[in-house]
Amino acid sequence: MTVARWERLTALVELVLNTGAVAGVRRESLILCGPPGHGKSALLERWGANVAVRVYTDTTLTDLLSCARDAQNGQLTHVIFPELQKLLMRRSAVGDQALGFLAAAMEEGVKRVSLGPITHDFRSAQFGALGAITPDALSFFGQRLRHIGLFSRGLWLPWEMDTGELAAVSDAIRDGDQSALTPCEVNHAGRPRVPVRLSRSLAATVQKLSQAIFPFDVRFQKQLAGLCMASAVREDRGEVAALDVEYVASFADFFRQARRDR
Ligand SMILES: Nc1ncnc2c1ncn2[C@@H]1O[C@H](COP(=O)(O)OP(=O)(O)OP(=O)(O)O)[C@@H](O)[C@H]1O
Ligand SMILES: [Mg+2]
Fold it and tell me: Fewer CB near the terminus (10 Å): N or C of the chain?
């Protein structure tokens, strides 16, 4: 079964996960926002078996502390929440504590955290998040997400399959074709992250691309640069090439629809 959008989203998720293999950049985050039953969770769970990735249906701060510890040791790069609304449905103090911690982990990294009498030092442990949420849950919880600053810390992409695409999925289910759900691999767990060079001229191209999509959103510019480096590392290159920037630019239509709060 081929649904072009499904294939492209799979490729984009792969790119986001590969930011985990690049030294000196943030592990990027991506949240799919779409109606129930459009395969959001199914798509994200394709990466569930990777050791550098951990899938949580629900979570608390305690789980995230252990993720930060593993990120610090190079054992974990991303956390997947196939049902992100579950976190938001928790008692607000508990949910906000976990989400606040997650926001820090997604961006600048987690530093000292005091829990009761103990202070944990995570030395800027940083990891990315992949998640899925329905538009209803998003509008219900949007205010909280905005307060915590989660929208600009990842790519929040709307995803809605049209009837032609849903018909193709329906045919695949009828035919027992599971090819769209086969597990995917990212194999950089435990390996040292590699530096990837981005030349001045290609950095300028990335800047132009970023400005054309979200003017003066410097965080987005960094996110794009990280994705370009991930594209290079995916092919074992230590330097970003023009084709990496073109590849990242090929997702511009998705990026343009991303929710940004600045
Ligand atoms: N491309 C596909 N091929 C085969 N089955 C699919 C495909 N996409 C989705 N499915 C199946 O359709 C069902 C619905 O998908 P899924 O549970 O991922 O939806 P969702 O968008 O996460 O919905 P919700 O918002 O309710 O959680 C699942 O059983 C999934 O395995
Ligand atoms: Mg789901």
Answer: C
Mutate to test the pocket of ligand 1, among 10, 32, 41 (most ligand atoms within 8 A of CB): 41
What domain range includes position 240? 200-256
Reading across the β-sheet that carries 128-133, which strands appear in turn?
53-55, 78-81, 128-133, 30-33, 155-158
Per-residue pLDDT band for 104 (boundaries 50, 70, 90) equals very high
The answer to whether the CB of 203 falls within 8 A of the CB of 244 is no
The count of structural domains within the chain is: 2
Is residue 217 in a domain? yes
Q: Are residues 155 and 246 in the same domain?
A: no
- Confirm if 8 and 175 have CB atoms less than 8 A apart: no
Q: pLDDT tens across 190-200, in order? A: 678 899 999 99
The predicted model scores a pTM of 0.94
Q: Which residues line ligand 1 (CB under 6 A)?
A: 6, 34, 36-42, 83, 132, 134, 169, 172-173, 180-181
List residues bridging with 174 in a β-sheet.
Answer: none
